[in-house]
Every structure is written in structure tokens, then in C-alpha cells.
Design goal:
Helix content: 40-55%
Radius of gyration: 28 Å
Strand content: under 5%
Distance between the termini: 81 Å
Keywords: Membrane, Transmembrane, Transmembrane helix
Organism: Capnocytophaga gingivalis
Structural class: mainly alpha
Number of strands: 0
Protein name: Cbb3-type cytochrome oxidase assembly protein CcoS
Length: about 80
């Protein structure tokens, strides 16, 4: 019977610890925005400025994709 009292007291301490950590995470704002991290990976990374040497390579590279200003026609 004394084992049950010991297990109840240990489980109460563990629950209290988890509750404290959860409330601390809420207070620090960890759960404020739950949707953005899930869709953040769908967007492209911000462009990083490249060196002049890389700029010349990009200018000589030809692309087969249409520009954003050109309209696509469907047939």
C-alpha cells in the first residue's frame, strides 16, 4: 500500500513539472502562431544578393520559361 502513495506523489510531481513547463511555453509565446511554420516551407527563400561574378553568370544563362509579364494562352 505504501508503494501506491509513493507512485501517486511522484506522478503528482511529474504532472506539476509538465504543467509548469507548458505554462512557461505559453507565456513565452511559443504557441502564438501555429499555422505559419506549416506553410512557411511552401514559400521560396528570400533572395540573397550575389557577388558581381555570379551576376554575370546569371545574365548569360538562358531560360526557357515565360516571363511573368507575358500572358499564357490556352488552346
Amino acid at each position: 500500500m505504501s508503494v501506491i502513495y509513493m507512485l501517486i506523489s511522484i506522478s503528482t510531481i511529474v504532472v506539476g513539472l509538465f504543467l509548469f513547463l507548458y505554462l512557461r511555453a505559453i507565456h513565452k509565446g511559443q504557441y502564438d502562431d501555429v499555422e505559419s511554420p506549416a506553410i512557411r516551407m511552401l514559400f521560396e527563400d528570400e533572395l540573397v544578393e550575389s557577388s558581381p561574378k555570379e551576376n554575370t553568370l546569371e545574365k548569360t544563362h538562358t531560360s526557357y520559361h515565360k516571363k511573368d509579364t507575358e500572358k499564357q494562352t490556352t488552346t
